[in-house]
Amino acid sequence: MKLVIIGGGHAAAQVATSLRQHKFDGDATLVTDEPVVPYQRPPLSKMYLSGDIGAERLPILREQAYEGANISLKLGVHANSIDRDTKTVSLACGSTLPYDKLILATGGHARRLTCKGADLAGIHYVRTMADTDAMRGEFDHAKRIVIIGGGYIGLEIAAVARKAGKAVTVLEATDRILGRVVAPEVSDFYTQLHAEEGVEIHTDKLVTSIEGTDRASAVRSADGDRYEADMVVVGIGLVPNTDLAASAHLDVLPQGIQVNAHCQTSDPDIYAVGDVAWFRHSFYGREMRIESVQNAVDQAKVAVEHMLGNDVSYDALPWFWSDQYGLKLQIAGLSQGYDTLVTRGNPAERSVAFFYLKDSKMIAADCIGRIAEFMNAKKLIASEVPVTEAQLLDERPFKEIAADLLG
Ligand SMILES: Cc1cc2nc3c(=O)[nH]c(=O)nc-3n(C[C@H](O)[C@H](O)[C@H](O)COP(=O)(O)OP(=O)(O)OC[C@H]3O[C@@H](n4cnc5c(N)ncnc54)[C@H](O)[C@@H]3O)c2cc1C
């Protein structure tokens, strides 16, 4: 079998690992337009940005592991188009790769600002290692950093910048940070945490222009307020890289490449996995795209197994993490649609779990410094057992409470 994998992130690397585990004896080629082997993105806004780890710690697998799995690497090469009639992929370097099966793990790119001044120097995005390298070049000298976007990436960068002694301002367009993904109580926790650490967070600040002559020197919001900056970092979301799939006339929506439960696109010989895939999650009963390492890894596993003839479907429970000021947030499940929030622990002590319930069942949990709650919340969510607020607030260790609930 001839397999072509397009992508250089967690999903592509997991395809390689799974091929090795399944002793794949076909002929595989991995094509990525980044000049390096697939690497971990989470440290780009955390320990790699802070300098706590170097570039040598980022690769997910060493180059030899690809050789060991019989995978040829084409690094720094963009895949231009797919011809589904001849089953070939055309590469920017001029060569053409034939395939029997194709896996698209093309991820996404950072959403760009479009306002006046968006092209000025000194404005940074964080999606690739090259982005963080470019940012670090200016980071050491910058005294005032304005971050546009109060999502996880913006807040993680704020935490690193504060630790490095910068004056940090976060501008969020909506009425609270992390508004898309967490309850107001969790937004309040992070607002308070950043305030205590000295970050200024301003909500309801729609950015309308970046000012400066040759480089950004201030950010202006719709209400006329102006924030001076030596450097601007933008974290306003991700746009899935669907162009290649769309030009091959696969089913593509603005939200991502449509795939079924086996991660197959509308062409059964082409799979799409990771940040780029738009799918129906069987547990939550709705369509979604998930931007997380867990999702990229688990979908890649399903695609490889299915491609090799096993009848597997994707139904993994989503989980995610974020690190800010040495505090680990671990998130299990998806909280949208909850009707009750239960707070276990003490936000003031920076050790707290927020449980999201719907119809008396747990659907998600945000756990801050609470590993037992996170591990057991995953089991409670998957089991769909009924839970009450009183049970979740029982003072016994959470492991014991969960064991009783799970029977
Ligand atoms: C700064 C940052 C922090 C994060 N922190 C966390 C975290 O704490 N926890 C967590 O779970 N997740 C985190 N994430 C998200 C996580 O990194 C992504 O969900 C994950 O990387 C998705 O992997 P992927 O392989 O689907 O896509 P990507 O990692 O986006 O990889 C796609 C690759 O495909 C390449 N490509 C695209 N089109 C082509 C083409 N036509 N030809 C050749 N190559 C192409 C791209 O250049 C890229 O290398 C973070 C992401 C970022 C950017």
Helix-residue proportion: 25-40%
Termini gap = 47 Å
At the fold tier of CATH, the topology name of the largest domain is FAD/NAD(P)-binding domain
Structural class, from secondary structure content? alpha/beta
| Number of discrete helical segments | 11
- Unreliable spans are none
User: Which band does the percent of strand residues land in?
Assistant: 25-35%
Q: In the CATH classification, which architecture of the largest domain applies?
A: 3-Layer(bba) Sandwich
Into how many domains do the coordinates divide? 3
Kindly report the name of the CATH homologous superfamily of the largest domain: FAD/NAD(P)-binding domain
- Assembly type of the chains comes to single chain
Supply Rg: 22 Å
Main sheet: strand order: 3-2-1-7-20
The largest sheet is: 5 strands, parallel
Ions, cofactors and other ligands present here are:
flavin-adenine dinucleotide
Q: What's the number of extended β-strand segments?
A: 27
Mean pLDDT: 97
CATH structural class of the largest domain:
Alpha Beta
Judging from the principal axes of the Cα atoms, what is the shape?
globular
Cofactor: FAD
Organism: Kordiimonas lacus
GO molecular function: dioxygenase activity; oxidoreductase activity, acting on NAD(P)H
Protein name: 3-phenylpropionate/trans-cinnamate dioxygenase ferredoxin reductase subunit
